[in-house]
Specification:
The structure is a single chain. The N and C termini lie far apart (about 40 Å). Helix content is about 40%, strand content about 20%. It contains twelve helices and seven strands. The protein is of the alpha/beta class. It has one domain: Vaccinia Virus protein VP39 (Rossmann fold, 3-Layer(aba) Sandwich). The longest helix is centred in the N-terminal third of the chain and has 26 residues.
Length: about 290
Amino acid sequence: MSDTQKASEAQSVREKVRAGYAEVARRGGLSNPRPESNCCSSKACCGSGAASADELAQKVGYDEAELATLPEGANMGLSCGNPTALASLKPGEVVLDLGSGGGFDCFLAGPRVGLTGRVIGVDMTPEMLSTARHNAESYRQRTGLDNVEFRLGEIEHLPVADCSVDVIISNCVINLSPDKPQVWREIARVLKPGGRVAVSDLALLRSLPEAVRSMVEALVGCIAGAVLVSDTERFAREAGLVDLHLEQKPDFVASMTSFEDPLYQKVAAALPSGTRPADFVISLNVTARKPE
């Protein structure tokens, strides 16, 4: 495949993802902040169509009390882990959230970095950005903090200066990128020396059948775009990150199946006989550091 063809295919993937998450924002944003079903034709984007957004968040590690502090509409049920907990945020730090959506993790990170800290959310979907900025006003009124901002941009080309960020977080987003090595290079570029990254994402234990990879809803639902665990590790190392730790969390996909999530049911029907989604897809926590 030529470079031109690769670029065209990558842009096609971005447009499909952007369209899917624009629909998420329209269904689960300002007019319907806490939907039971929240994505595209499958009713699920990295989340459950049958479980509530808060129930899903609690299953991946968020505390009920902290969820109650969020602006209404920030939690869209798009999580597959809790990167803010992994990151062990400290007062005064600058935090960058890749694919910030409605601002869910940003609004949890803000009080942790406090008055002297800063949280920047980046998302490529204008509708998500509008939702997040709307939610930010509620956040400011509730906390008295004005330390969260949202920028339009692609995670392969972050609108952030070199060596300017203490911590990068991301929640079920990198799998959506058509150029994951470039995302990890960008992570390394914008981190300060000694800065750290905490990512929750979906990854593969083994390759998915073509029937699943070709599903648009599986792409937008964070499954078809996932890569092998070993590839994620390689991309991070090749970007120059060190102290890499990968923790596999198989319970997430199993819980989606138990919720009778429509997307996971459709994926299961396309898998080889005798297998299930959890045999292929897992939630993966990744932490690493940029060398000093």
